[in-house]
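Reply to dn_fold:

You asked what the input looked like. This is it:
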Amino acid sequence: MEYAIGIDLGGTSIKYALVDKAGNSLFEGKLPSFASVSAAKVTEQLIKVATTLKGEAARENLTVTGIGLGTPGIVDETNRIVLGGAENIRGWENIDIASLLEEQVKLPVVVGNDANLMGLGETKYGAGKGCTHVVFLTVGTGIGGAVIIDGKLFNGYANRGTELGHVPLIANGERCACGAIGCLEHYASTSALVRRFSASAQERNLNFNEEINGELIVRLYHEGFPLAVECMNDHFYYLGRGIAGFVNIFSPQRIVIGGGLAEAGSFYLEEIRKVVKAHVIADCALNTEIVAAALGNKAGQIGAASLVL
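and this is what came back:
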């Protein structure tokens, strides 16, 4: 049995595992990424993870064929360089992380965008299994996405595309962190939901004795708290409109939605489906299901490993 090291680099932590061809994981773990410190510190942590897993595999006499790494940002997969676009990792620009890992760990390395690899993992082993055409969205601090066409990742020419969170949604809207105006991410991410709720609460002199986050807003929504209902309905509307656009363009077999909000309960997808149905071209959506992701926070590391396997 052959295994690959799968690593999912995030702004807070690095998730990792040894993965086989069936998508099964061994030696799963998590380390802080130290993304706010420096690129050198992040690289140090990645080397530590890969070295640890290689050692665990050697002790169990397991064959490791390589390392798959999912990273935020735009990745030049031909030259295996992270070009930039990872706002949550300090200095993570023009980094030849593949060569650095290979030099230290002595295993071949493949690098890809983290959201793309989450989508690949879900398609091969999770909620998109058995499908050849899938659009994956992860809704959290931002909105990441992946497009699978004929069973393969579609990245656009020279791997510069599929930034699904940065599709312009609102003309003359607010400025997104990417610098553009009115992006889907700025209006439909969990961060956008929290920002909208917090600003409205302040305007209405509402005080909460706990952190305002997605979990609180969902709980208040279920309790019928008017502001929570208003903000959640806005969230459903913006995300549903964005998804309707993706259905019209790609007509996938499945739209797979991951992230904390998608795990809040069946009501979430039901509300999204209503908005999509109201705004999609019916013939484009004829064969499309909207489903929740199945692999949770394992999708990135499993998808990264599958690049090697």
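The longest strand covers residues 63-71.
Hope that clears it up.
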